[in-house]
Amino acid sequence: MQNQPPSSSSPREPRTVMLTLPIERPLLTYIIIAAISVVFFVQLYFYQNNPNVIDPITKWGAMNFTRILDNSEYYRLFTAMFIHLSEIHFFSNALSLYLIGRGMEAFFGRIRFGIIYFLGGLSGSLASFMFSRGSSAGASGAIFAIVGAQLVFLYQNRHILGTQGRAWLQQTIVVIGLNLFIGIAAAATPGAVAIDNWGHVGGFFAGIVLAWFIGPQYQLRQEGMTADKLRVVDASPQRMTWRVSALYLVGMVAALIYSVVNLR
């Protein structure tokens, strides 16, 4: 990554130096991909051997408005993240998680990445329950949370990431806009594949809010007496991670209770 600190010999003439970012080797991303893969192929195996099963995704734990409201099956808000409707649905989400998740886990670390992914997935399921009032499944809400976190990360650290970071930020904005357009167009087109736009919005919102408070906030630290002795450190206070996450979770529980009480 690049930055342009002032030269000690010529303060008015910036020069480019290479900086190493504090990153962590991704692991949780691969574990999540493995988990959704196992669930999908087991689900596919049982479905192929029981082709007459009606609404198989509900049986496997998809988010279902009626089951949650009438039977208090709240676990579905979580299990829906591991259920997929078809081969295309599964492979597109697995590929998206592979392409986006590894980089964000490297920057955020496993703990913060996991918090954003799973709370984002829960937020997507909750938003779908509150506003769409149907059935939904898939990891896309959690993936949208990672995309939202990526947007915040690139914006907050644009001074460190330099021109590469700004280009990455622009690409992320384009991807977000394109996905929103596709979701809106699908909802307005009769017979099109149903896309859970509320689930995407809920996950995206969670990713932005959580990353804003717990995401990496890079700063330059000088070591020695020359400008060449620079290193990048993550100045985000670690104690904020658990405080913000707990507060956000309490907010989701409150929203769920409020929705259930008013909908019954």
- What's the helical proportion of residues? 55-70%
CATH class membership: Mainly Alpha
Low-pLDDT runs of 5+ residues are: none
From the helix content, strand content and strand pairing, which structural class follows? mainly alpha
Major beta sheet, specifics? 2 strands, antiparallel
Helices, by number, come to: 9
CATH topology grouping: Rhomboid-like fold
Amino-to-carboxy terminus distance: 53 Å
CATH superfamily: Rhomboid-like
Q: How much of the residues is beta strand, in percent?
A: 5-15%
Question: How many structural domains are formed by the residues?
Answer: 1
Classify the oligomer: single chain
Question: What global shape is seen?
Answer: globular
What's the total number of strands?
6
Radius of gyration: 21 Å
Spell out the blueprint of helices and strands:
Elements (H helix, E strand, L loop, with lengths): L1 E2 L13 E2 L9 H22 L6 H5 L2 E2 H7 L4 H4 L7 H46 L2 E2 L3 H17 L1 H31 L8 H18 L3 E5 L7 E5 L4 H25 L1
Antiparallel strand pairs: 1-2, 3-4, 5-6
Helix pairs in contact: 1-5, 5-6, 5-8, 5-9, 6-7, 6-8
Commentary on this structure:
This protein is mostly helical. The protein has a single domain (26-56, 78-211, 239-263), classed as Rhomboid-like fold (Up-down Bundle). 66% of the residues lie in helices and 7% in strands. The chain contains nine helices and six strands. It has helices at residues 28-49, 56-60, 65-71, 76-79, 87-132, 140-156, 158-188, 197-214, 239-263, and strands at 2-3, 17-18, 63-64, 135-136, 218-222, 230-234. α6 (140-156) runs antiparallel to α7 (158-188). The protein is globular. The termini are far apart. The relative contact order is 0.14.
